[in-house]
Amino acid sequence: MNAAHAARVWMLVASLIIAAMAGGAAVPAGYAADSSSTPSASATSSGSSSSSSSSSGDAVTVTDNITDTENLLGDNLGKVSDALDRVKKEDGVTVKLMFLPKFVEGKDPNEWAKEVLKATNPAPNTVLLAVASEDGNLVVAVSANSDDWLSSKESVDSLSKAAWAPLNEDTPDWSGSAIALATQISALKKSSSSSRFSTVGIIVFVIALVALAAAATAFVVIHRRRKARVDRQLARRERRRSARRNAGPANDPANGSAGGPDATSSNDSTNDSADIQETSSTEGHA
Length: 286
Known about the structure:
Layout: H1 3-21, E1 55-56, E2 61-62, E3 66-68, H2 77-91, E4 94-100, H3 109-119, E5 126-132, E6 137-142, H4 148-151, H5 153-164, H6 174-250, H7 261-274, H8 281-285
Parallel strand pairs: 3-4, 4-5
Antiparallel strand pairs: 1-2, 2-3, 5-6
């Protein structure tokens, strides 16, 4: 579906909604009965998409993403369009606006807004702000194919709060409501990106910390093993030296005690030292 066709479908949906609320009233001026028709008039605004179609009569303004049945945006339509374009370009979010006098009677506004948004076959990450000017009510709906950072209940609540603030004044700021919604979307996207980067940073830090701890543990274990091996080698050397010192005087002919008890003791020590296993060629020469 190209942009022009999508615009005509959106306008037709808006027209049918308006007609339903009016109890079967005629479609607003500028619309034909079928979706292949084009508006009888056009309204352009700075920053709006070149492919957008629009219709404006005494009380209706419709573009690709804006339906304003009472011309509440007025001269600020350009500013609003610029804000929507910026959010689309920088944050990848499509914002649809619908300003109506009343919501459909006998139907939950939230469910109604979801149905209207679904009927437009929305792109991923699409937000609909529907405002009922006479009821003093608004609804924010997010398409089902949106990312978690945008579609979570917390995000929808924050968008509703941001859009409501400019309307909760002595003189409601209709265009300010739409711009505030766009600004809040950017804030949510920035917060989501920062949170994601922070999470990645924490994961990298934890991995580095675990690797460092493992390296430190390995170093301590290796160091202790080496020290134990050196201690054993030193102990064996000392035993051999002690055995040689004890064997020397016992075998000396000048002492005349080669066959005495001391000689037997020295021979035992020599035999014990001979049983010691050499661990290196260097120790063998020692």
